[in-house]
């Protein structure tokens, strides 16, 4: 059976990005969403590799795929993240790969996905700072492993962070070699914009919370001192470089740390956006990854803009565990449900 994966290439046996599969019926398709059926037609375009791609026609739908990042509950076991996502009504999950083998073993992940009815829509490549037993340290080599895992899980997207400021080689790889790498895989490599609060000078770990090192407002001194140490982490985080990448993961709170208007940023980058990490930013407390409804960012209007533009990717709620109030399970479930309701409410509002 063929499944529809929200605008991405369709393959035999793909786990759908939504809870129920699509059924092929000649030139038209239908999808069961709870008690409703959404009907639409599509043009089938053969691909050189033997797969097909569906180009939708007359497609109108109120439902956007909203998934939950397991990284939001990294202080819990992975099974609880799947369970809570299912209990609160999310359409699937994004698995953050970390030092735990549970996040890297395909058989176990498929077991969790089947047990809780939660498709693994996307994987997040491990953070550079994490040492993973059995995995290489090089982020590009880790990306290769994550992509292979995504194929086994039938995931559509791999999220890849911009490199640490010292990793010049990875920064060059992103600009020069990622486009060819992307052409050779059906998995979307969505490069994530980073926060604009930086750690400088490596082991000294001096944090300048209010210093906006991404901007053209850098004076000559900081240009001379910072840029030799920060070419990938700062320069690639500028819009003119992000625009050169094949696909982007648009992280709202990371833009908030730089004082950007996220709506203006979205308009500039939207043609490259294939994935969204949604969370808010508290300027007063300098807290990142707050609940979508708690902070200064205009996320309601942003969701409405996605709806207007018929955005085809997923929205991943990725928040800090403390924002979910992880000390009490009932608080976690309440905050997860309210975050999901916020997304549904504002995406469907006309």
Describe the model.
The chain is of the alpha/beta class and 350 residues long. The chain folds into two domains: 1-61, no CATH class; 66-348, TIM Barrel. Helix content is 32%, strand content 22%. The chain has twelve helices and 16 strands. The longest helix is centred in the last third of the chain and has 20 residues, at 329-348. The chain is globular, with a radius of gyration of 20 Å. The two termini are 34 Å apart. Mean pLDDT is 77; it is low at 1-43, 52-61 and 198-233.
- Give the structural class: alpha/beta
Q: Classify the fold: give the CATH topology of the largest domain.
A: TIM Barrel
- Helix fraction bin: 25-40%
Number of domains: 2
List how many beta strands DSSP finds. Answer: 16
Q: Please indicate the percent range of residues in DSSP E strands (runs of 2 or more).
A: 15-25%
Determine the oligomeric state from the structure. single chain
Spatial gap, N to C terminus: 34 Å
Strand count, sense and barrel status of the largest sheet are: 8 strands, parallel, barrel
Going by CATH, what is the homologous superfamily of the largest domain? Divalent-metal-dependent TIM barrel enzymes
Mean pLDDT, to the nearest integer, reads: 77
Task: Output the helix-strand order.
Answer: EEEEEHEHEHEHHEEEHHHEHHEEEHEH
Note the total helix count: 12
Cα radius of gyration in angstroms: 20 Å
CATH class category name of the largest domain: Alpha Beta
Which residues form runs of ≥5 with pLDDT under 50?
1-43, 52-61, 198-233
Shape: globular
Name the CATH architecture of the largest domain.
Answer: Alpha-Beta Barrel
Query: Taking strands numbered 1, 2, ... along the chain, how are they ordered across the largest sheet?
Result: 5-6-7-8-9-12-13-16
